[in-house]
Amino acid sequence: MKQYGLIGYPLSHSFSKKYFTEKYEQLGLTDHVYDLLEIKNLSDFPELLRANPKLCGLNVTIPHKIGVMYYLDWVHPDAKEADAVNCIRITSESPIAAVFDGEVGIKDHEFRLEGFNTDIYGFEMSLTPLLSKAIHKKALILGTGGAGRAVKFVLKKLGIDFTYVSREPDKHQFQYKDLTADIMDEHKLIINTTPLGMAPNVDKCPDIPYEHITADHVLYDLIYNPEETLFLQKGREQGAVTKNGHEMLILQAEKSWEIWNSREKHP
Questions:
Q1: Spatial distance between the Cα atoms of 21 and 15, rounded to a whole number of angstroms
Q2: Which residues of the chain have pLDDT under 70?
Q3: 119-163 pLDDT, tens per residue?
């Protein structure tokens, strides 16, 4: 039996479990299973590994994408730069990191934990077809939480200048009340990384001046449920190109599957 799973808290619903369970069925992989492995405190991570010795790979969601790196033997340079991991490959090629060699250790099993950020791949591949180099030179990132780490990494890679928008005052970012017509005109790419508009609170949206959105704008929402958030609806009504986070989720899941099945060696 090959076990995979998702760690995070809370895990009331999961795209990953449904996606991979259906994938295994389609591929006829009756010896594969994908479980929700809810842990509130990351200090319980070693015990979770010990209790599930068949684990071959994990996805990681909030609030553990940053803290889990402490437990890993190796982190991909992109994930390290983004400062977030959402995919772990587990192999038995070498002993687990020394952090496990204490009272909570798992000396009776040998693991190697490698961390990746497949959100980076998913976001980049789903965003770039929408962009024009001549138009989309600057972006607004709505929200300053951990969900935006892959977004920040990709925008830097693409050479797109960006500014965060938050409710909190900070000289390095805009507040929502600061967003003038000129600022909106200058920033033709707007990415929502906040949970505003996520089901069941579908009547919520970031407080930006939607009247200044044009057909040259691209509005991207990391949320995938509902399919069209109020943020995207308001953008569409102004003629903007809009996209939700569903394709990003599929792409990051497929990249995770590729990583889990890879035989590539890392230092």
A1: 10
A2: 93-110
A3: 999 999 999 999 999 999 999 999 988 778 999 999 999 999 999
Query: Residue 162: which residues within 8 A CB-CB, separation 6 or more?
Result: 138, 139, 140, 141, 152, 155
Tens-place pLDDT, residues 197-225: 999 999 999 999 999 999 999 999 999 99
What one-letter code names the amino acid at 6? L
How is 10-64 classified by DSSP, letter by letter? --S--HHHHHHHHHHHHHT-TTEEEEEEE-SSGGGHHHHHHH-TTEEEEEE-TT-
Comparing CA positions, the residue from 121, 119, 128 lying closest to residue 222 is 119
CA distance 68 to 145: 17
For the four alpha carbons of 160, 164, 170 and 175, in that order, the dihedral sign comes to positive
Indicate which residue of 17, 23, 65, 80 is catalytic: 65
Token pair recorded at residue 223: 């949320």
DSSP conformation letters of 66-104: TGGGGG-SEE-HHHHHHT---EEEEESSSPPPGGGSSTT
Q: What is the pLDDT of residue 236?
A: 98
- Which contiguous run of DSSP H or E holds residue 200? none
Q: b/e per residue, 142-154, with b = 16+ CB within 10 A?
A: bbbebbbbbbbbb
The residues facing 15 across adjacent strands are none
Instruction: Tell me, yes or no, if 65 is annotated catalytic.
Output: yes
| Separation of alpha carbons 202 and 242, rounded Å | 17
Residue 115 pLDDT: 97
Side chain identity, residue 207 = D
